[in-house]
Amino acid sequence: MDGHARRALVTGSTDGLGQYVAQALARDGFHVLVHGRDRERAEAVVAAIRDAGGTADAYLCDLSSLTAVRALADNVLAGHPRLDLLVNSAGIGAIGDYPDRHVGEDGYELRFTVNYLSGFLLTHLLLARLKASAPARIINVTSLSQRRLSFANLMLTDGYSGARAYSQSKLAQVLFTFDLAETLRGSGVTVNCLHPATFMNTNMVRQDGVSPLGDVREGGDAILSLALDDRFTQESGLYLDGRVPSQANQQAYDPVARETLRHLSLSLVRLPTF
C-alpha cells in the first residue's frame, strides 16, 4: 500500500450499498477500510477489491456496542496515519432481526445506537485524524424517513415502534450533520448527509418486507458524488435527496434541538461536552 494513498473508512461495507461504495472508492485509488460484523464477508470484500487491483483492509465491529466502536477507532488510528473520507453508512431498518424494542450492551435503544450514536462516537474519535488529513470529508447516510425527536423519550421506552425508532435515528443523523458542519467550518473537513435512494435492492429493504424499487447503483453513485466531486470540497452542512439538495424535517434547522442532541449524545457516549 502506498503510504500517501487516500484512505476511506466505509461502515457497513460487507454488502449492499456500502459494498458498492467501497469497491468504487478502491477503483478510484482509495485504500479502503472495509467494516462489517462478519469476518468471512469482510474478507471476501477485501479479496474482491484486491483482485480488481485495489487495496483494502477488513475491520470488524458490532456497532451496537460503544466499547466495540472505541476499539474500531483505536485500530483505525493505529493502522493509518491519515483518513481522508469517513462514510457512516451502516444501519438497521424498521424491522430487521429485531422487530420489537431491543437494547444494546450499553442499555440504549438498538436503532438509535446502531444508526446514529455509534456513528456519532466513531466520528468524534476519528475527528483529529480527519482534520490532520484535510481536505477531508464525512458523509452520513440517512433517509427521507424522519420523525421529530422527543428528548424526554429518546430511547422510546414509551410508544415504541420499529418505524418510529428508525425514523428518529435517521433525523438524529441530520441534526448531527448540521451541527458538526458548523463546528468544523474552516477546518478543511466537510460533513454532509443524504437520502441515497428509495427502497434499493438491499438486505435492509428486503428484511423490512418491502419490494425493492431500484438498484444500489443509484444510491451508491449519489454517495460517490459527495465523496469525489470537487464542488463538495467546500460545501458542508447539506442534506440531499439523491444528488439534489433538499429540505429535512424542520427540527433539523432548530439550533436549540441540535445543541440539545449534541449534549445528550456526548453524555451517552461519555465524551466531554463542548
Fill in the keyword field for this structure:
274 residues, alpha/beta, Rossmann fold, 8-stranded mixed β-sheet, 8 helices, 42% helix
Structure overview:
This protein is of the alpha/beta class. The chain has a single domain, classed as Rossmann fold, CATH 3.40.50.720. The protein is built from 8 helices and 8 strands. The chain has helices at residues 16-27, 39-51, 66-79, 110-132, 162-183, 203-207, 216-228, 255-268, and strands at 7-10, 31-36, 55-60, 85-88, 136-141, 189-195, 239-241, 244-245. Helix 3 packs parallel to helix 4, helix 4 (110-132) packs parallel to helix 5 (162-183) and helix 5 (162-183) packs across helix 8. It is globular.
Produce a short descriptive summary.
This protein has 274 residues and is α/β, with parallel strands linked by helices.
